[in-house]
Amino acid sequence: VLTPVNSPADGIWVAMIEHNGAPIELIQFEKGK
DSSP secondary-structure letter at 21? Predict the structure, then answer.
């Protein structure tokens, strides 16, 4: 984990991980927010 899960805006969750040396950004959108 490069960046712990955080919420930059209502209904959005973001985290950064490293996979095979490459940074990957994971984004989750919550409907209705």
Answer: T
User: Which of 33, 13, 15, 11 is closest to 24 using CA atoms?
Assistant: 15
Among 32, 29, 23, which residue's Cα sits nearest to residue 8? 29
pTM of the model: 0.73
> Domain-by-domain residue ranges, the chain?
1-33
Half-sphere exposure of 28 (CA within 13 A, CB side): 8
pLDDT in tens, 2-18: 999 999 999 999 999 99
Distance (Å, rounded) from C-alpha 33 to C-alpha 10? Answer: 6
